[in-house]
Amino acid sequence: MGTVAEASEALEAGRVAEGKQILEAILHKQADKDDESLLAEQEQALLRLGQLHRDQQDAQSLAKTVVDSRQFMASIAKAKTAKLVRVLIDYFNDIPNSRDIQIAVTKENVAWSKKEKRIFLKQNLETKLIAQYFEAKAYRDALPLITELLKELKTLDDKMILTEVHLLESKVNHAIGNFPKAKAALTSARTSANSIYCPPMMQAQLDMQGGILHAEDKDFTTAASYFFETLEGFDSIDDARAALALKYLLLCKIMLNVPQELPAILEGKVASKYAQSRDVEVMKAVAEAQRNRSLEAFEQTLRQFKDELASDPIVRNHLSALYDTLLQQNLLRVIEPYSRIELAHIAKMVHQPVREVEQKLSQMILDKVFQGVLDQGAGCLVVFDKVEEDETYEKTLGTLKQISLVVDHLYQQNLVGQSATVGDGLATVAVDKLSGFEGDVELGNRKGKLITIYDCELTLKWTADVDNTVVNGTIRFPEVSHEVEDNNETYRFETELLSESSKIAHDVYTAVRQKLAPSMESVFHRFRTELIDTHAKDLGHDNDAPAPIKEAVPSSSAAKAESSSSYSSPSTGAVSTSTSEVRVSSHLAISQADLWDLLTNPLRIPMWSKAPAQFSPNVGAHFSLFGGNISGQIVEVAAPNKLVQTWRVPQWPAGHHGTLTTELSQGDDSTKLDLILSGIPTGQEDNSQAGLENYYIRGLKSLGYVISLTHSFSLGTIL
After folding, report:
1. Is pLDDT above 50 for 122?
2. What's the CA gap between 91 and 104, in Å, rounded?
């Protein structure tokens, strides 16, 4: 028996049969488990023999070698066995038309590993088998195996393989069109990956799949961010799939109708390495056709780069939409100079059948892409000038959308704090919360006058502290409506005692029914006046416009409440600013530097905000987030620890900004994120807290970074 070195010499000299015979003899020799030198020699012989069959494109011989190696593998460690089998099976990837043999060999080894009770090897091979089913498009065979394997992995809590299987599950479900399950599987994969060290290759594959799924949802802004991360990830490990990630990134920019951004991307440090690839040339040609709004150039590109475009399932899925977009842009380019144009001339200019052009123009008119009408009798398209929108009408709609919020704030400010004395007057019972609000409120014009139509149900929570005994309960007004006011009726109410019955509780309950609840009527009488004063100018009226209101003589307690609690109009006068701050905190499984980049890098912000972002972490720079719904200016930057910015939402009074302070602190295994918002208009505290939780915290959570989430809502006075 020779050695591996002798076999290598024979192979290099062209004596293939001799070298192969030496390697097989070494592999088949009976070895003792303690003979480490022979076992090492057999391992080298096995790998060299597998490489020989791979180079000779001999799939059958490679399959036989895998089977013949089982005697040797029974003598070595189980972990090394798994590694060797996976390497040998991977050799099939370099042999054309060997997919069926590779699947058969993998299934045989799965059965052998079950028989030998090698659980780790079995799970690795089943993961390989799922990947092979996916590549062979045998999706129905892959799904049952995924379900069975996931049950085992969750029991064993093997996060690395669990991440890989969830990723394959996402790919398979995406391939069969089950997008909800594909998204859920990707989220599970990210969650598993965040609890372990995730290798760069696996992280890049997760980002690639995330970009693909966002592109399927037409969220190309977020998809572009994921593909940018994928490009950097694959480039860092010199993986050829970096060029594919760049191709998808450019596709997203094309689908966003910003082909002018492609040159800047291709000049980047990473992208420039792949700028000369054929995939990039394809996207540049498509972008040029889009920039010129030329359908003919696009069709020529499809023919020229047929293999690159049609053979890629991800690109192919978006070709139809891209073709439709270019056809629309091409039609707009042709009709732009005309007010009346023949359909036959349009069809001639875009090189399309008249019938197809007519259908597309009809769809564009219905979609309000432009204003016009098809004169089928004359075979013409009549294009109208764009009608200027009535700003008053838009303002009215905007006002109506906000009325429910305003009503909620009105009652919150005017009812919370109302109080009445208990017994001899040494104690008081007060309303401390508006716990329920339901109903409809409308404000509009009728014959030049403002009218209000409303019907609401209110529930208030009250509390009293008498001789160190806390008593609480509720008051419910089932009907607070314009009809009660118009008919000069008394407001009905229902009270409920939530505390245990006692003499003190009975005295408080009596005060609520006899004093506190009746005192609310003065607030209800003022409702029409407050609502009209707030929105008169929005609907084209002066604030002093007459309105049908009922005059009432309030009781002494109600009069006191009226003078001490008033509703501030958000459109006029000084803004009433809360003395409270909203604080939301979360611990994230991400480094401080990476979290800072997520929050300040305009290319990564869309990954968690799900909307375009304009952001530059420089003092004095203006920013816009969530599609323009959040705006402000950078005040202080202390990277990567602290960011201070002015902050406002459209619902706040015009010109008013709060201050959002973002603080990051690195822990042992996570980074703590604190968001502190101050300068909030009175009554907006709950909405502001919900906004920070829903859009910032949940956005980051969707990426799988949150390991434990705790929120705190602080209402301490700011000194």
Report:
1. yes
2. 14
